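Researcher: I'm preparing a figure for a lab meeting and need a structural model of a single chain. I don't have an experimental structure, so a prediction will have to do for now. The sequence is pasted below. Please return the structure as tokens so I can convert it later.
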Amino acid sequence: MTEWSIAQIQQQMRTGQLSARALTEAYIQRISEVDRSGPAINSIIEMNPDAIEIAQRLDDERAAGAVRGPLHGVPVLIKDNIDTADSMQTTAGSLALEGRIAARDAHVVERMRAAGGVLLGKTNLSEWANFRSTRSTSGWSSRGGQTRNPHVLDRSPCGSSSGSGAAVAARLCAVAVGTETDGSVVCPSTSNGIVGMKPTLGLVSRSGIIPIAHSQDTAGPMGRSVADVAALLGAMTGSDTRDSATASSPSVVDYLQYLDETALRGARLGIARNFFGFDGRVDALMEESIAALRHLGAEIIDPIDLPTSSAYDGSEYQVLLYEFKADLNAYLANMKSGTWPRSLAELIEFNVANAARVMPYFGQEIFLQAQQKGPLSDRAYKEALAKNHRLSREEGIDAALANYQLDAIVAPTGGPAWSIDLVNGDHYGGGCSSPAAVSGYPHITVPAGFVHELPVGLSFFAGAWSEPKLIALAHAFERGTQALRAPRFIPSVGL
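Model: Understood. Here is the structure written out token by token.
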């Protein structure tokens, strides 16, 4: 299939060489050939039966002279923890919610529909966004099975936005939406060799998204270029009365204006060596990336220190347990009538009663730990949350940016993808997602190269609402290095 960027798609549609319907049909055919058969990536949990009809309506609008914006007629895949009030289910990949149709679109879905996106289907994910077991396998869900990495098929796609990352990499859609609490956009982006952005907390509404923790959860755009991610981000943002965090959201809808190939000239970038050292091959690739940044005009401050970067590991987990119980209980209780579990306690009971189907490989120890937590008024929760914010913000990213007078912090996003192991679960290498995740600050990852056949990304992160700057820097690096590579669907590679 011809690979087009969103800009190229719009150009083709303007000239009449392409239609939204034809493009949607082409992706549906590609999904049949690559996701359902052939290499069988298994990234899509459900197709939208209305996709072609939606595309045709958008073609009719265009023919009448109405174009909604850069996303008009562009096929988009949505992670299966995001509500869509249509023919598709929203289940978080769990058989516990099988058959459930949301009563209302998530706000981010409302925004994308209004922008003219064609909702092509739902992507598979790590069940319950990878917050059920400490021994879970990324990309596996009881409803959807195991998603595979399109670069090397026996390697993990990472998670929890596994299907979104794999589908974009495998050219099954133009762009996709993931969600992140800590690493769930940037990890599947680096592991699948694409661009992914976790926005500032509150830039994108969380209403209608199955939650883990309101202090860290956000949806984020995933695509094959910074430009495509910027286009999708603009369609996702906006204030929402159902999510008070969006009250401070900037009224920016056109992030394409920040694409600047010269943005690295004179930019001060700090190299966070805290996140190096877990893999010598990754370190070598990062040194090449740092050299490229210098060549493109950046002033490199190396090293910088994020001394608090691991000091909140324990308190972060405690906050997530507390908020998961409270937030998931609220979400389940507000679902429209049905036979599904209405609380975390009932969900735990369902899993026990259906253990052979729901828990064949790993259990639900995180669920059990969360269920033991008290209300959000507990002193232990409040102190842990305050500690997280102080260490990740004032004494973390904010301090580093100020002390070194930086435009952004740079680090390896993670290591090469590990082997899928349903028996023992994930075995991560390194990663730098936590500072931006815990602080609620933005983080973008861009392809930087390969370790053997496995992609590795470079991360840029900075302070709250710095998306324009990060988009500019990431775009300049991307254009200067051009490390994106189409997957080859290799069965296996020994490392």
